[in-house]
Amino acid sequence: MNLVYRKARSFVLLASGLSAVVLNNTIDGYSAMFGISLILSALITMLFLFVYFDKPLNEKVLMEMILDGFSGIIIFTYNQSNDSFFLTVFSFWIFINGLFYLSSGILDKSNKKYLPLYTIVGIVLLVFGFMPLHMNEESHEIIIYLIGFAIIVYSSSNLYLLFKKKSEIY
Predict the structure, then answer these.
(1) What predicted TM-score, i.e. pTM, was given to this entire model?
(2) Is the Cα dihedral 152, 2, 68, 101 positive or negative?
């Protein structure tokens, strides 16, 4: 199975994470960029599902597409969307992706060779899911760096596994 679509999804998220780090301490407007990158990544995953509909599919890829699409759309459709709502949606998104990593590493026997990577990345993403919700006003300046770093860790680990395993990450 060709993984071009899965790699494209990871590159879109990597670009989003890198742009968060480049924004220089401002979270203003990043929620729209993050929402667009999530919707785009959900569309790329949907295209992947349409192209390879007759091949065996891991359920986590479908759940990942639904998570990306739901999180991206809710950022744009919620009428009182502000920075704290964006942080809640981001925390939910990164926490669930951490659960996907952790469960794939621990429960799937085909990922046994990469168990330390799956476990470490899963735990790190779970921690990143809780951190933005517990930031106070004094530390609010560094939160965009935290978000960017979390997305960079997630997308770069996806890319590493896609290139190293030459198969689906889940």
Answers:
(1) 0.92
(2) negative
